[in-house]
Request: fold
Amino acid sequence: MARGVKKAFTEEGVAKMTAPRSGRREVGDAIQRGLVLRIGETGVKSWSVIYKVPGERGVSPTGRPLKGSQKRITIGQFPTVGVAAARKEAGRIIAQAMEGKDPRPERQEANLLRYTNSVEVVSKRMVELAKKQVETWPRMEQVLRDYVWPTLGGRPIGDVTQADVHKLLDDLVAEDKHGTAREVRKMMSRLFNYAAEKSLVAASPMAGMKRRDLTLQVSERALSDDELRAVWAAAAEMAYPFGHLFQLLILTGQRKNDWGSAQRFELDAAERLLAIRMERFKSRRGHVVPLLGLAWDIASGLPTWVDDDDEDAIPDGELFLFSTTAGKRPVSGWSKAKVRLDELAQKHLREQRNDPDAALAPFVVHDFRRTCETRLARLGFNQEVRDAVLGHAKPGLQRTYNKYDYLDEKRAALEAYGAHIAGLIE
Reply:
């Protein structure tokens, strides 16, 4: 390991330094005493400070403090820690050593405290507090557990940067999980505000974060009769899995993952309903969707997969209703499927109107829910029944005191709505 070389470090100069062919190379700073840049074979550059503590070996006969053995403290890697920051920290360590205090125990205690306060540990403390104050704490915990802890959970919360959060959100957006990304961003803002209140971070890295791609565009879109006919015909042309999936979303008004991630055991043939378990429902409570007429015809006719020869096969009841992997995993590729649905619906709309220039106004899958509620209102069903059908949480004190499940009313509403849709497409 080469030593003895000293340079006046600059950001540009350090960036241009190359790795040695073998071993490690150390370069001292000509400006800050004790500051050293170590460069490994892989090109990794890390700062450290070398020092001795006066008086550590007592004093000489003449009363002069005797310095102890040489010690080293690692400051951090370049370019995460720049030249100015490295000099500042090295100066602080050298000054403390010259006062006869070894900085290592203090730093070890600080590092222990830092790693003890990981993202997962701090967020669990926040959730425990939320249990006493926020009714939606289960959703908070679910978002953190499913999307934050797997990637950032073990990191000291004080080390997480805005770039880390951007990376997490970018990965979700790449999977077409914009809604989930919005939820994650909201929970991360809440987490860092909590951490700042507890003095665990100097400031929230979420401050000033701009994500225009996650801006929620409020939509009041409900599909018209001819649009519904065109979309239904398009879904019929697509067939399984997404064709049937889009049709059930139209007929029941549920969220896309309520059906997209449904498993065989949630489909009750005797009662003709889909019983969505609380673990995967948005408001963390069970939700029952009655299936009548056309909706039951589609649901009951979905393919099944059985492999009795495979000892590791997933039990039939746990297989997913909509899948391209024989029920082993839920269906994926919503974005491509929606593009195909739009293309086919545009074609059918032009055929229906006998107009080659007819344009289908843009819509999102969630608009099927708005369409369902709008039509139910026209059919005469009140707000409580419509909320029950769509699985909306009860407002205010209703959540606490109204335990009625509206199952009969939901059956009547969805039966009427299904007959209404059947009349349109016929």
Notes: DSSP finds 16 helices and eight strands in the chain.
